[in-house]
Amino acid sequence: MNLEESIVKIERQLKEFIGDRKAVIGISGGIDSAVVADLCKRALGREKVVGISMPYCNNNIEDAELVAKHLSIDCREVSIKDIVDSFDFLKSNKAGKGNIMARIRMVVLYSFANQFNGIVVGTGNKSEISVGYFTKYGDGGTDVLPIGDLYKTEIYEVAQLLGLPERIINKKPSADLWDGQTDEGEMGITYRDLDAVLKGEITNGSAYEKVQEMRRKSEHKRSMPPIFKVQN
Predict the structure, then answer these.
(1) Sheet containing 118-120, strands listed edge to edge, beginning at the edge strand earlier in sequence
(2) Considering the entire predicted model, what is its pTM?
(3) CB within 10 Å: which end of the chain, N or C, has fewer?
(4) Is 172 a residue whose pLDDT tops 80?
(5) 69-100 tens-digit pLDDT
(6) Is the C-alpha dihedral spanning 7, 154, 22, 144 positive or negative?
(7) Which residue, 128, 144, 151, 189, is CA-closest to 43?
(8) Which residues are CB-neighbours of 172 under 8 A, at least 6 positions away?
């Protein structure tokens, strides 16, 4: 795949899809949201891009600020700590609390989108979407997924082409759901192996079986809810 051509295609489609509205993006300080924000800025102009940093504690605030400063875009900070902590019955449920964080963040993004007549631009990539590595009605709930046809390993190449800060490119991918959480650690597979399976380069073995299991378990997340038929 010619990634330079892909960048041009994404920018054109962003411009056509969003039009005169604003792009509202959750800026986590990670590579995916940085790439999406950069592509939106190039397609729409920086005045039409609104970044929202939504820390639970102070994790990644500096990286989110670095991205916003690098791109010269408007970026607001909204702490989700008090809202998340109000679900005190989830204190011992790490995964459940992580899902709440993702869903609260999407509520915040849509609130800003309503305020600015904007579109919530998602940051999911093809690798994560393919195996359901996202929170249903959380980061999976967006209006458009501009990098959804690019594998995670390709995102790194795109980030280099866009000239994003090396600090953002080199950091370990994390959804910032709890201390020490990393995407690869949570999935139990590296992005390199995941992409190799999805591309058909690995067709057997433990990595292959892991990916098939993830796809089976996440099928409900990757399709609309079933509708029970009661009429002929």
Answers:
(1) 74-77, 49-53, 22-26, 118-120
(2) 0.94
(3) C
(4) yes
(5) 999 999 999 999 999 999 888 777 888 888 99
(6) positive
(7) 144
(8) 182, 183, 184
Residues 6+ apart with CB under 8 A from 65: 53, 75
pLDDT above 90: residue 213:
yes
In this structure, are residues 64 and 202 in contact, taking their beta carbons and an 8 Å threshold? Answer: no
Q: How confident is the model at residue 57 (pLDDT cuts 50, 70, 90)?
A: confident
**How many whole angstroms separate alpha carbon 99 and alpha carbon 104?**
9
Judged against a pLDDT cut of 70, whether residue 133 lies above it is answered with yes
Determine what percent of the chain falls in helix, strand and coil, rounding each to the nearest 5.
55, 10, 40
Give all strands (DSSP E) within the chain, no chain letters.
22-26, 49-53, 74-77, 118-120
- CA distances (Å), origin 187, targets 109, 128, 184: 26, 10, 5
Give me the residue label for tokens 């192996």.
193
Classify the phi-psi angles of 137: left when phi > 0, otherwise alpha if psi is within -120 to 50, otherwise beta: left
Q: Are 24 and 121 in contact (CB under 8 A)?
A: yes
Rounded distance between C-alpha atoms, residue 196 and residue 151, angstroms: 10
Query: What would the DSSP string read from start to end of 150-192?
Result: S-HHHHHHHHHHHT--HHHHHSPP---SSTT--HHHHHTS-HH
